[in-house]
Design brief:
This protein is of the alpha+beta class and about 450 residues long. It has 3 domains: about 210 residues, no CATH class; about 45 residues, no CATH class; about 70 residues, no CATH class. It contains 14 helices and 15 strands. It has a 3-stranded antiparallel β-sheet with strand order 2-1-13, with helices on one face. It has a 3-stranded antiparallel β-sheet with strand order 6-5-10. A hairpin with a 2-residue loop joins strand 3 and strand 4.
Length: about 450
């Protein structure tokens, strides 16, 4: 029995401490004991056990806080994970059919009572993008539930998890309000971005690579805020040579009355006596601030591989570059992440349901040699074959060929995608031959 069964009700009690966890706690409490699903979903490297017995890398919590407060990091990560989470999943069936209602797909669409599928996938991917790993607890659904998948997925912040090795067995210690809870590796889905310095240890995400850019942008923003809101240093000191203290006060009051307020801020001042101005603070160069913030934004966007057009930067773009940016985003950013998730998820799907899942590729298919052949020889393909290539569903009367003589419909051989040179296909070839003879005679 997995260690999850021992911690079941204790975990529910801990989740009850927060109102947001009440529904998940009820799900956990109503569930039966979990017996584990076999081997863990992460590889066992017993020769490297010592590298796993360590807390999360220093700075991971700061990266998650940066995601909450950094506009550029959050915008770029959100664009990546929302594109990732919007992709549909299915179980491949015979004759290129797609089952979108299989329990393996339903689990991906319904993580738990508080997270729908897209939210759960986006949450896991956000952890991967920022700190380089995501950890999800595999839990059974309520015993009295008649609908939905047989298990529930509960993503937890990796900063609350420590990976340990005890007697050669890998275990996960999850820290919650009610205390520490230990789970077998078979109770956990652990996804990682491999750290080159410690490939068998905790992950390392792209957020760490742009940590300096994130902090620089935050310092620039805070400096501008302090300058405009709460600077205790005056902008300048004016010296009226030879003036009495009373005269200085009168001059200052008159100057404030004439120039205070944004409507009169730049109004010129005319005086009839000598005055000396000592500048105390450097001028806040708006252009310099914009350049620094743009540099930080471009660096973060570049590290994540997101084209500028996808982020709404279209000053130097046209329709062709915008379409190319969408294709690049799908090809080089979204689909590679989906392939990694598919490989991880299929381990669980094969173990529970004996099937594999796949995703609807976000990459638009380019016009290739096959499209050229189908456009030049449409009579060699049924209507349903052409509809499938166009991305549409088959129709009941679509298993026919359209003969080019008069575009009449001829029944196709059932179940034969490539008919032999007889029957219907022979009829097509004869009609095509007659059509060519008529053209030559003319």
């Amino acid at each position: 029995m997995g260690l999850f069964g021992k911690n079941w009700r204790a975990l529910a009690d801990a989740l009850d401490d927060s109102p947001s966890g009440e529904l998940v706690a009820q799900t956990v409490r109503n569930a039966g004991p979990f017996t584990g699903l076999g081997p863990p979903l992460v590889s066992d490297f017993h020769a490297f056990n010592g590298t796993w017995a360590k807390p999360p890398a220093r700075g991971d919590r700061e990266l998650l806080l940066a995601w909450a407060v950094s506009p550029y990091l959050r915008a770029v990560v959100a664009r990546v994970v929302e594109s990732y989470g919007a992709v549909e999943w299915f179980v491949p069936g015979p004759n290129q059919t797609k089952d979108f209602d299989h329990p393996a797909v339903q689990l991906l669409d319904n993580y738990n009572p508080l997270l729908i599928g897209s939210q759960g996938r986006e949450l896991e991917q956000s952890y991967l993008e920022t700190m380089g790993e995501s950890i999800t607890i595999i839990a059974p659904s309520p015993a009295d539930s008649l609908r939905g998948p047989p298990i529930t997925l509960i993503p937890v912040p990796p900063t609350r998890v420590t990976v340990e090795t005890v007697a050669g067995e890998k275990r996960y210690r999850v820290q919650e309000a009610g205390g520490d809870f230990i789970f077998d590796a078979s109770d956990i889905i652990h996804q990682r971005v491999v750290n080159l310095l410690d490939p068998y240890g905790r992950g390392s995400g792209l957020g760490r690579a742009v940590a300096d850019e994130i902090e620089t942008d935050e310092y620039v923003a805070k400096h501008a805020k302090s300058y405009y809101y709460n600077s205790t240093v005056p902008e300048f000191i004016g010296v009226l040579k030879g003036a009495s203290e009373q005269k200085v006060r009168e001059f200052g009051a008159a100057f404030d009355e004439k120039h205070r307020g944004f409507r009169r801020h730049w109004r010129p001042a005319w005086i009839n006596q000598e005055i000396q101005i000592e500048q105390l603070t450097a001028n806040l160069d708006d252009e310099q601030i914009q350049r620094l913030r743009k540099l930080a934004f471009d660096t973060i966007r570049w590290v994540y591989g997101v084209p500028p057009e996808v982020m709404g930067v279209v000053e130097n773009s046209n329709r062709a570059t915008i379409q190319a940016a969408k294709d690049m985003m799908a090809t080089f950013v979204v689909e590679p992440r989906l392939r990694k998730r598919r490989a991880m998820w299929n381990k669980l799907a094969e173990r529970i349901w004996g099937v594999q899942v796949d995703f609807v590729s976000p990459v638009p298919r380019e016009f290739d040699r096959r499209d050229e052949i189908m456009s030049r020889h449409p009579y060699a393909f049924t209507r349903n074959e052409i509809r499938r290539e166009a991305g549409f569903d088959a129709v009941s009367d679509g298993n026919v060929y359209l003969v080019p003589v008069n575009l009449s419909a001829e029944p196709a051989n059932d179940g034969d995608i490539s008919p032999s040179i007889s029957g219907d296909t022979e009829r097509i070839l004869v009609l095509v031959s007659e059509d060519r003879d008529d053209t030559d005679a003319a």
